[in-house]
Amino acid sequence: MSSTPDPYASVTATARAIATGEATATRVVDAYLGRIRNLDRELGAFLAVNAEGARAGAAAVDRARAANEPLGPLAGVPIALKDNLVTRGLATTAGSKILAGWIPPYDGDAVTRLRAAGAIVLGKTNMDEFGMGSSTERSAYQKTRNPWDTSRVPGGSSGGSAAAVAAGLCAASLGTDTGGSIRQPAAMCGVVGMKPTYGRVSRYGVVAYASSLDQVGPLARSVEDAALLLSAIAGHDPRDATSIAAPVDAYAAALTGEVAGLRVGLPREYYGEGLDAEIRAALARTAEALRERGAEIVDVSLPHTAHALPAYYVIAPAEASSNLARYDGIRYGTRAPDAPDLLALYSKTRGAGFGPEVKRRIMLGTYALRAGYYDAYYKKAQQVRACISRDFADAWATVDVLLTPTTPAPAFRFGAKATPVDMYLGDIYTLACNLAGLPGLSVPCGLTAGGLPIGAQLLGRPLDEATLLRAGGVIEAAVGLGAQRPRAVS
Amino acid sequence: MPTLTRAEVDEIALLARLHLEPAEAEALQGELGAILEHFAALAAVDTEGVLPMTHVLPTTAPLRADVVEPSLPVEDALRAAPARHGDLISVPSIIPGSPASAGASHHRPGAGE
């Protein structure tokens, strides 16, 4: 990192170069800002670039180093944040017009922890409105293009984060995952994405979509970088009642490169009809690579898998319809002009401020929670959810992790999913993890013949992120993308 | 059960405080009907005696000490309000036909568009 900082440098290498004085934080930040200027007009990954704030943060790190003050583990490392992570003084829209122009008066917990570790907030990344989508096409603001093929979507809803990491526009990023929104875009953009155990990372200061499913996690170019970010953001927070008070592991230390004796389950329901042939072959190579290194490959069954999709699309919209009731044009956000009374103000503000997919899910959730329908929909879905959770608990008796595809198909072209149900079906492999509250990791495991990334998903026991990262590190070394870079930036 | 009538769509939109243009309501009637048909499969799952899931790990709800802590300053809390009246947020009349409250006349330029 002597003259021009390498935009693809690891988080560890960037932090070390700044700590040793080989690079200044200012140079690193300026290099990423320059790259965003050059490349993001086409990619559309960022909704807001925090140029002034990032430069000020970098200057503070450089001054601290010059004064021999102690530096945080991520000092000077430029991180992009999904735009549903609340940032003090920096516009936060969650991809929605209803929050246009909102400047939050506080930082979310994950953001506070990142800043405390010395990280620099580089900007806010594009997303499907309120996280509701799997392609980032549902952003109210702009399209984000997949850096591997700009005629295709980056996945979603954390599509801006995944594209920014893949294209080297930031050192790493944070996203959120309610039904696959970190892992699916990570798979489609050829980066690592982790959804931690529900409660591992605080949801304080996360724009709520479905509160029993939402979780913050890292998107990064390596498993080690994801591990470092997770260690920085995880931990108990009294401001989130669902936050878990378990100690946080030094996740990067778990990356031993060993999987000997690890029992890896292949759930047959994840390898059925509808799985792309090239993805199936890549997963077979991944399983074989783990077996060659001493892992035991075991066939398992998760019998309730097929019910995850309907259960999710009842629970998530139901919770969303309640959570999004707060956007009423009163305290913050946009307000419809000239409403004659309060009811009209609510309804016109919301009618004008929400996009079609958000309206669809609010309507669906309101329908499911309506008096007389609750038992048939929400309660039933929560019972099915308990069955799905029990399937996993049963699997942990015989295996340590589960290996599945992250997505049934690689990144698709803009506009390819014609109906809402077509779009929802792309989430079939990622939803159960959220319903059961488990940790999940997507790691690149090769490219299709057409040059599109393929993701392998690892699912694990509650709070066993360390084992997922360890196995993910082995997959990365054996069948990962190595030094291959997306077309749009090479 | 899953097929929705237009009247149901309008009723749900009212419950959701969501103004829909006629074309939107018409499109949603078909879309929501298709989604609900897809989800009818849930009814067939045997969940006899299964308790609805709450959290992945057993959790407790510890009580915080009853101590006053600093909260968001009023000015910070009100900065994003689309319309305000001194230290209050102004809203239009709550009861239709009653005199309007401070609302529109204090609408800040540039906010709430």
Index terms:
heterodimer; A: alpha/beta; Amidase signature (AS) enzymes; 11-stranded mixed beta sheet; 38% helix; B: 113 residues; mainly alpha; Histone, subunit A; two-stranded antiparallel ribbon; 29% helix; disordered C terminus
Describe it for me?
The complex is a heterodimer of chains A (490) and B (113). By secondary structure, chain A is an alpha/beta fold. Chain A has a domain at 11-254: Amidase signature (AS) enzymes (Alpha-Beta Complex), CATH 3.90.1300.10. Chain A is built from 15 helices and 11 strands. An 11-stranded mixed β-sheet of chain A has the order 1-3-2-4-6-5-10-11-9-7-8, with helices on both faces. The mean pLDDT of chain A is 96. With 113 residues, chain B is mainly alpha-helical. Among the domains of chain B are: 6-44, Histone, subunit A; 74-106, no CATH class. Helices cover 29% and strands 4% of the residues of chain B. Chain B has 3 helices and 2 strands; from the N terminus they run αααββ. Chain B has helices at 6-15, 22-39, 74-78, and strands spanning 84-85, 88-89. In chain B, strands 1-2 form a two-stranded antiparallel sheet. Residues 101-113 of chain B have low confidence and may be disordered. Chains A and B meet through helix 9, helix 10, helix 11, helix 12 and helix 13 of A and helix 1 and helix 2 of B.
